[in-house]
């Protein structure tokens, strides 16, 4: 390792920048979430205060217990303090700790999203490699029409279509992601395969598959890693319609139910969680990209 | 191809603007003797479960979406342009602040923010107000991506010869931004507007299909697509796919105009 790398690793600057951004995003998100809950209609009102069976003294005691929210600054501080301790509050509609709800459903969403991402990337890569291996206008047109049509269809309709075909949420997520990943991959591959060194490798008679993998795609690994980070964000967005319409008990369905029930503690904490996940994914992609660029 | 698709979009927009004259009846008129009726001469796309003419609801719903989505796109692109000009002309600190704000906005999952903000609305909000809030939120959240593109263009233009000449002539920041930079950014702003409009159309359609869009009785593309949730009904009445096909056609035209525009910008 060179002296420069020992003191200033190439990947350090983007990682530190991203970590700083992640911290600011989470703090800003936490404050925004607290503000949303604070200004929401019905904040500070307890159902028990409307119960005519309770005495005046009991209602007074309930009012006293709700006084925490009247002081805005104290409310913000307590909200962030509880957030740091992992206390995500209680779901208004389900009456259960938000943390429990998330931990129950996270596994389902992780499996669906991971499988969807993998399927989309495999399909897009396979088609891109096929188009470079066998450059036929009819294949190119067919792939463009398929991707273009899928891009024009709302993600929820794509999810419905997959449901009618008997598919799982992972299939719906992959169908939503595929055209977006394919379009970027096709542009990257087209630029990479038109590079001078690739043309030279082909002229030297190197086998096409070796040219594609070692000479064309390897140098564009940083771009592929950046696209991988972005595709995680896209997968997160596709999870809600996919799980809702396919009736899969994951985080996407939880968010949809919370939106219908105006359950802000669930919505706000889920937004923070997803923000952390996508920012973390982009951070990893940036770090890997910086490391790959250093190697290249 | 670009002219043809642009013409199709303009014709579609004009038809939808004149929905009051083109539609067979109002979107809320119920034909109680023709509930779930198949396609016929009286009802070209049949009627829905409440006996409302599907073609009329499609025309009025598409009109609402096609009016509000471009308006939201215009708002977000205008905000992005103003932020880019301010950030570019006011100095490096403003530039870093704009970059950080855009990063912050892009890091947050917009659909979750939209759902959380929609959940703030009272239960008895009017349909028109809900439409305004939905598209308003889309416009509010959609400035970040265009602003990054425009800020990059502003930085590029600031290094160009005509800007150096303007500086040398004693041109102030405001004049530089409004007279020299803004006109050069208009083609880029148009491209961003053409990208944002179909994105907002799709976003509203997704929200509507999940039941979180514009409430009844006001039709929108999103709530028109809710009929697709019943496969047996769709299989028996394929004309129920008309709103989905119309949406795909309109979005496809936007994408073709954008793709053709990329070669000209």
Summarize the structure in words.
The complex is a heterodimer of chains A (296) and B (265). With 296 residues, chain A is mostly helical. Chain A has 13 helices and no strands. In chain A, helix 2 packs antiparallel against helix 13, helix 5 crosses helix 8 and helix 11 packs across helix 12. Chain A starts with a helix and ends with a helix. The N terminus of chain A is likely disordered. The longest helix of chain B is centred in the first third of the chain and has 37 residues. The relative contact order of chain B is 0.14. The chains are: A mainly alpha (296), B mainly alpha (265).
Separation of the first and last Cα atoms of chain A: 15 Å
Radius of gyration of chain A: 25 Å
Order of helices and strands of chain B: HHHHHHHHHHHH
Oligomer: heterodimer
Tally of alpha and pi helices of chain A: 13
Shape field of chain A: elongated
Query: How many strand units of chain A?
Result: 0
The residue fraction in helices of chain B comes out at over 70%
Backbone structural class of chain A: mainly alpha
Helix coverage percent of chain A: over 70%
Largest sheet of chain A: none
Write a short abstract of this structure.
The complex is a heterodimer of chains A (about 300) and B (about 260). With about 300 residues, chain A is mainly α. Helix content of chain A is about 75%, strand content about 0%.
Topology of helices and strands:
The complex is a heterodimer of chains A (296) and B (265).
Chain A: H1 3-7, H2 12-39, H3 56-65, H4 72-84, H5 98-133, H6 137-152, H7 155-164, H8 169-193, H9 196-203, H10 208-217, H11 221-245, H12 251-260, H13 264-295
Chain B: H1 2-17, H2 19-22, H3 54-90, H4 92-107, H5 110-118, H6 127-141, H7 144-158, H8 161-168, H9 173-209, H10 221-224, H11 231-236, H12 242-262
